[in-house]
């Protein structure tokens, strides 16, 4: 798929595409142009700058140090340009346009589909593009303009972010069925002792909160397994490989959820948007719908 801004800054777009794919043919396919055309364009750009920007490596290519330097600046410039393109398109036709929504992986199965089903009933012409990732990546995406809206938690205060709290989600201790604590309704983390711990990859909001809870409980921050997917973490628990601190509702067959009584065992879910520019009509409409409907869905999910 070509860039939405393709043609406005062709040299930068072509270089960034090659940087992402490390392959000229695949970059040309993304941009929707013939491979020889892309190769000639990159050669012209290198000639204008007076330095090589890439070199061949097997069937692919690698950017030189100068190529990497330019590509980094180019990507940031394209983020700003793309934000402008989306705003202009949306202003020209407020009943259509597009919104890029970032959200946590845990919201993919139920919360986001329910939100989009309801939003589409009143805004059938708006295209919502979806990005799932960790909270810090979503926040960075909103700040850079790659994402129009982000639903994540926790969202740290930032002078260039607008936020609205949606819900407070309790965290629970997930243990295997038949575990020594499985018959309990509530538990203190100190009772976990030296049990093997399963967690999310560093940078995920749940991982950050888990680290804080372990410190407060004076337990070592030592994990047996780290995962980028909550379902995978729950599956590891079901397999008897350890216990995990996860949001309520993450349980699956073979696991049991226990309420954690430790202070701070919850995560605040918020919707975030950039405070640096005026939101388009579709983005404002989706933000309003999320604020109205997401709290109920998050409490249920």
From TrEMBL:
Q: Which GO terms describe its molecular function?
A: DNA binding; DNA-binding transcription factor activity
A Pfam family name for this chain?
LysR_substrate
**Per its UniProt entry, which superkingdom is the organism in?**
Bacteria
Q: Which SUPFAM superfamilies match?
A: Periplasmic binding protein-like II (SSF53850), Winged helix' DNA-binding domain (SSF46785)
Stored InterPro entries:
LysR_HTH_N (IPR000847), LysR_subst-bd (IPR005119), WH-like_DNA-bd_sf (IPR036388), WH_DNA-bd_sf (IPR036390)
Which cellular components does GO assign to this protein?
protein-DNA complex
Q: Which UniProt keywords apply?
A: DNA-binding, Transcription, Transcription regulation
Query: Start and end of every HTH lysR-type domain?
Result: 15-64
Q: Which family does it belong to?
A: Belongs to the LysR transcriptional regulatory family.
What protein name applies here?
Transcriptional regulator
- Record the organism: Rugosimonospora africana
């Amino acid at each position: 798929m070509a860039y939405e801004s393709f043609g406005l800054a062709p040299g930068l777009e072509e270089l960034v595409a090659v940087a992402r794919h490390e392959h000229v043919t695949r970059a040309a396919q993304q941009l929707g142009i013939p491979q020889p055309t892309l190769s000639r364009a990159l050669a012209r750009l290198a000639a204008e700058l007076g330095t090589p920007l890439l070199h061949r490596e097997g069937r692919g290519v690698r950017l030189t140090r100068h190529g990497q330097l330019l590509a980094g600046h180019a990507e940031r410039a394209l983020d700003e340009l793309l934000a402008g393109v989306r705003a202009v398109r949306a202003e020209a036709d407020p009943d259509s346009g597009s919104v890029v929504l970032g959200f946590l992986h845990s919201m993919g199965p139920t919360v986001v589909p329910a939100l989009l089903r309801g939003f589409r009933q009143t805004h059938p012409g708006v295209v919502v593009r979806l990005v799932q990732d960790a909270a810090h990546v979503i926040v960075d995406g909103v700040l850079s303009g790659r994402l129009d809206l982000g639903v994540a938690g926790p969202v740290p205060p930032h002078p260039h972010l607008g936020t609205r709290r949606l819900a407070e989600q309790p965290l629970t201790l997930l243990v295997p069925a038949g575990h020594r604590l499985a018959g309990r309704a509530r538990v203190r983390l100190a009772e976990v002792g030296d049990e093997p711990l399963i967690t999310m990859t560093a940078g995920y909001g749940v991982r950050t909160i888990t680290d804080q809870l372990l410190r407060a409980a004076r337990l070592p921050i030592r994990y047996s397994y780290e995962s980028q997917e909550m379902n995978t973490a729950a599956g590891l628990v079901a397999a008897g490989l350890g216990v995990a601190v996860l949001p309520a509702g993450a349980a699956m067959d073979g696991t049991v959820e226990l309420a954690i009584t430790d202070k701070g065992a919850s995560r605040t879910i918020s919707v975030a948007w950039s405070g640096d520019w005026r939101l388009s009509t579709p983005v404002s409409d989706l933000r309003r719908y999320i604020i109205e409907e997401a709290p109920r869905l998050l409490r249920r999910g």
